[in-house]
Amino acid sequence: MLAYAVKRIGLGLLILVLVMIAMYAAVFLVPGDPATVALGPRATPELKRLLIERMGLDQPVWWQIIEFFRNALTGNLGYDVWSNRPVSTLVLEALPNTLILGLTALTVALLIGVPLGCLSVMRRGTAADAVIGVLSVGVIAVPSFVVAIYSLLLFAVTLRWLPAIGAGEAGDFVSQAKALVMPAAAIALGWIGYIARMVRASMMEVMGEPHIRTARSFGLPEWKIVSKYALRIAIIPTISLVAVGLGSILSSAVFVEAVFARPGIGKLITDAVNTRNYPVVMGTVLIMTAIYVSITIAADLLIARLDPRVRDVFRG
Amino acid sequence: MSGSLAASDLSVRYETPHGAVHALRHVDIEAHPGEVIGIVGESGCGKSTLVTALANLLPANARVDGSIRYNGVDLAKLDAHRQRLLRGDEIALVSQDPMTAFNPVLTIGDQLVDFQHHRKDLGRAQKRARIAAMLGRVGIADAERRMQSYPHELSGGMRQRVAIAAALLTDPGLLIADEPTTALDVTMEAQIIHLLRELRREYNGIIIVVSHHLGVIAELCDRVYVMYAGEVVEGGEVDAIFHDARHPYTQALLACDPARFHERLDRLPTIPGSLPNLTQPPSGCVYAPRCDRAFAPCAAIAPPLVKLAAAHVARCHAVTP
Amino acid sequence: MSSVADASLSVPDRQRFPLLRALLADPFTCVALILVTGFLVTAIFAPFLAPYSPVKIDVLHKLQPPSMEHWFGTDHLGRDLLSRVIYGARTALTIAMVSVAIAGAIGLLLGLIAGYGPRWLDAILVLSFDSLNSLPMIMFALAIITVLGAGTGTLIIVIAATSFPSYARLIRAQTLALKNSDYILAERLIDASAARIIFIHLLPNVVGPLIILLSMDIPVVIMVEAGLSFLGLGVRPPTPSWGSILYDGYTSIRSAPFMVIFGGLPLVLATLGFTFLGEGLRDYLDPRLQLRRPA
After folding, report:
1. Alpha carbon of C31 to those of A134, A136, C38, C205: distances in Å?
2. Which residues of chain A neighbour B101 with C-beta distances below 8 Å?
3. Residue C242: Cβ within 10 Å count
4. Are the C-beta atoms of residues A266 and A256 closer than 8 Å to each other?
5. Which of A84, A272, B129, C135 is 20 to 30 Å from A11 at the Cα level?
6. Whole-complex ipTM
7. How far apart are CA C53 and CA C42, in angstroms?
8. Could you give the CA distance from residue A282 to residue A277 in angstroms, rounded to a whole number?
9. pLDDT (tens digit, 9 = 90+) per residue, A238-251?
10. Cα B81 to the center of its chain, rounded Å
11. Distance CA A94, CA A101 (A)
12. What is the pTM of this model?
């Protein structure tokens, strides 16, 4: 188990390093220097020199890369080109909003999707199963930001039930919760369908196994067989996908965050991309990739814990 | 509590995309409390379908004709809920493969507690105490710790003991052991047979043992039904079947049992031919194509069940009382 | 099945179009097929179908609600919304097809090399596929856009770069499985050239699953294009895109709500159509392939 964990974490770190090297190399290889591009028509020689210095572009590219990692290890991810604020501060300010959004969406999706999947299995072959199946594919297909815009139009603009933009007043729980409803629902919708389908698919496989027949032969009620005997096994592949899903929810929340002008990672990086604010883009990408990779690793380790069979393989 | 079991004119067919498979045809069997009934036959003869039907666990594509009466009640006439309550309370099944019979992610104790769900009068602690006592009775040492184990942490023989314990915990009137020793090695097999023999002395319900292994049947059972291609071809007291078999199939089956040869043979005897296609069962005797005593009527007319002695019957044109 | 004549009549048809028949048998796949065909026709014949130029500005008639002249109304610059939506289909489908085709070609090539080439090369390629696959797609895309600048070309590069690793992995797995099959071993025994083995034997067998995967990714790509265009990081104005129509509508959502409705509807219908068609294809050709994640 420990060797496995070390190997997975090592690979994750390697991936992070490779990504950042690739990004620096790409910036270096693209024609035109980033400072000119970033400044656009405002470029004066003095401003340019200042910016080049501030971004460290006057150093050789390998030195820039080493500097970046040396600083990153001490928690310094560089400075915003325009406001000169530390990138780590900017990310730490934005991250909680995105984390809350992603976790809420995922929790809602699990709370609805898993029971729907179970219901599908208990009613397999019936109309209810078919309806859940088609709806699941349907909600997976609809882009979350379109759901976001439509719900904004309906619930905020027309009905005025919920606030249209922002993350709510700081310190006011009710206002924050209200601001969370629509973005979380927009993201959760597709995941409900995905989780329901995943649970159904892996559950159907488990329901064919002999131990389910044993449970039946002892007359256990169907709901108990589904929710305890089958779900315990069927949930394992779902958990890994959902955990990986959290990583991708956090980054694809970009679109939904833009719709609701929610001050999260999405807004931070979109603004930075639009203004060619390299340090902010690099720092945010590094942190989000690190979170994504660690969630994936954590999911694999969690699976190893959940399944006693796998657990013993690693122990032995 | 325990009553008699009688299946009469029981037929089961499976609807498949390739047509209906007539897995069981016109089967009559009966069993009384205190009896151990053996069901023997080669793979594909319908013995698993028979016990699955008795335990009411047939898959959704199965169609049943005829009746199964337990304690005078026709099981097919009960609603799904009552059928379910009967399983694991009156009727318990020890399934074929102990390796896969238990849920791999729940502990033995957890599953055995759940299996006693009929006993609303008992609390969790009482149920666990019963489990510990029962595990001890089937010969599992250190029962308390074994209850904390996951199935994969137990050996095959131990799991089969647990499976038997689980079945006994429910105090069933009908205990069905489907190939209880097939997945085990020879030593384990001997131990499980020994355990089942001990159990039958203290147990007063019906035990049905299904096996393709003649030795297991001979050691455990009072009466035997021999099945071939979905039909019962011969039935009777264990002595009558093993020493005075009348049906040509039973005779051939006994002749092929390697345990009965005392000297080494160059070739093991086999029954020539293969099982008939059960999507279109023959109109005459199912065994006729492989039978060395087949004559004119065998291929055309299905033989009746001929009564040879008080409890000895055979389905064959060539036998006479 | 009721009469012999019926059965004998239907046999030649069934043999001629087995895939089409299977797809039409399921009502949802059938509707999806109609939707997809509709969008393809719209995209191809956009110049004939659009009543106005999609880029002609007419500020005097801006933000007009749907009317007989402008069925979908006009946007904040007075451009005809229906025309922009029709041309938007062209943008969406072109980018989706081109980028998926490029990604598929790269994936096919690298997958074959990894599966058929030497061990050390396989190890390097697999490590790089896995590294790319373990990145959050949108973050990776935004990083590339920062470097290259927004635009149609960047969009295609971004989509191709983020999706080829999973195609390459699929092809590699298929190639490895086939490489050790009896008939390929037999070919090698008679000294068949690597080119012969790859083109005659491997390629036809690995292309099928790849096409299913590609078809299932088309709706994702349509969504990514629209999403990035919504953020102003996709196609450049004035090129019509469903995403930029949505953004224009979003900025005037209070005064002209019809814009987001008409901008979002084709996007939803297209992703639904392509998704259900992809599902139908997968169910028919290879039901074991994985389910798609939400966009």
Report:
1. 13, 17, 10, 30
2. 210-211, 214
3. 31
4. yes
5. A272
6. 0.82
7. 15
8. 9
9. 877 777 778 778 87
10. 24
11. 11
12. 0.80
